[in-house]
Each structure stands twice: as structure tokens, then as C-alpha cells.
Amino acid sequence: MQDNLAPVLTAPKLALTVYLEALLRDMPEQVPGAGLTPDAALAVQPARPSKPFACLLFTAGGFHLAAPLDGLGGVTPWAPLTTLPAQAAHILGLLSHLDKQVRVLDPLPLLRPRAAARPRSHAAHSIVLSASREWGLACESVSGIVTVHPERVRWRNGGTETQPWLSGIVSDRMCALLDMEPLARWIERKSAGGFTH
Questions:
Q1: Is 37 among the domain residues?
Q2: What is the DSSP pairing of strand 63-68 with strand 175-178?
Q3: Which phi and psi (to 5°) does residue 166 adopt?
Q4: pLDDT in tens, 69-111
Q5: Burial of 161 from C-beta contacts in 10 A (0-12 / 13-18 / 19+)
Q6: What is the rounded CA–CA span in Å between residue 64 and residue 44?
Q7: Is 34 within a domain?
Q8: Which residue among 28, 30, 70, 153 is least packed, with the fewest CB closer than 10 Å?
Q9: Rounded to an integer, what distance in angstroms lies between the CA atom of residue 105 and that of residue 193?
């Protein structure tokens, strides 16, 4: 038998805590060909708020997430998307919204780059829009708006090259806190190079 077997987690809350903490750790290696290469320029330690702030709670790609309202442009119901030839795996398509073409992203490659590819059909019911309304995340559900107190966040330590858009864990909500600025920069860099990477 192996000596270093993973512990069996029987309590759902403990399992969720271990899982969310694993999200905050840097991944030790890149997966060749994943197409979602981290960028050191994005790995800047964000300023942590000193006062409570409002967040939207939603579920995307099976993850419970919180995003500060000041980084969002709203939520819109799911609608048919226009697909582009040779679009990147993380782009589901374009949504026509208020005279803009919004790039709709599949959140799973962003949140779990090592996850196996999944079929394009998913249970998205809404799109959480960025403040610029140039892109949005497909999401399964929106739970509402809550006030997050900075002292109740387990902040990610230091700048990190992998997933710089994950700021920490909102302890009392057991969800990952997104930092929308690094996510927007990453999306813009990927878009500048075309939809193929």
C-alpha cells in the first residue's frame, strides 16, 4: 500500500475547505498545450480593501464565486451565442447585448486549467458581465449581493503567476473571491492575440 494516500474527507464542509484552499495554491507546473498560460505581468498583489465591500455571489463552472460589484457591469439572462471559427476553448461565443458583442467565457478553464475538456453544452442560465461589458462569464446561478468584510477573507498571499484573478476565500460564504482587474487584463491579452490561443 502507498504511504502517502490522500486523506478521506467525510465532512462536506471540511472537503469544501480543502478544495477551496487548493484553489489558492499555485500550480507547480504548466500543462503543455493547455492554451491558458499564466502571465507574470498579471501576477501583481492587488490592493486589499480595508472596508466592507459589496459582492455578487454566483456559481460558474461548478464553483461558488464572489465578485466585487465595482468590477461588474451587470447580469443578463442566457441567450443564443454566435460562435466564431477557430475560437479559443475558453470562449463560448459572442452575445449581442446593448449594441455590443460580448465575449462569453467558459469559467472552467480559468478556474481549473488542468480539468479535462468538457462538452460545450452546460447548464448556464445567466452571464455575469464585466464592468466594460466586453466580456462575461457563463454562470449556472446568481445567489445575490452580499457585503464582504475584509477580515473574513482568507487572502491569497503574494503575487502569483497562476490564476492571479483568485484573490482569496470568503470564509463565511465558502466561495472563491475573484479579482476582476487581473482577469480582465488576461482576457484582453488573449484577445489581442486572436481567438486561437
A1: no
A2: parallel
A3: -95, 110
A4: 999 999 999 999 999 888 887 889 999 999 899 999 988 877 7
A5: middle
A6: 24
A7: no
A8: 28
A9: 16
Residue 147 lies in a domain: yes
Structural element, H or E, at residue 155:
strand 153-155
Summarised one tens digit per residue, pLDDT across range 29-81 is: 444 434 444 444 444 555 688 999 999 999 998 899 999 999 999 999 999 99
Number of domains in the chain: 1
| Structural contact between residues 104 and 81, judged by C-beta atoms closer than 8 angstroms | yes
**Residue 83 near residue 91, CB atoms below 8 Å:** no
Its pTM stands at: 0.72
Place of cell 472537503: 15
Q: Is residue 2 part of a domain?
A: no
Give the domain range for residue 165: 12-24+50-113+123-192
Q: Grid coordinates standing for 68?
A: 466585487
**Assigned C-alpha cell, 50:** 480595508
Amino acid of residue 126: S
Range 1-18 burial, b when 16+ CB lie within 10 A, else e: eeeeeeeeeeeeeeeebe
User: What CATH number is attached to the domain comprising 163?
Assistant: 2.40.50.180
Sheet holding 175-178, edge to edge: 141-148, 53-60, 63-68, 175-178, 166-170, 153-155
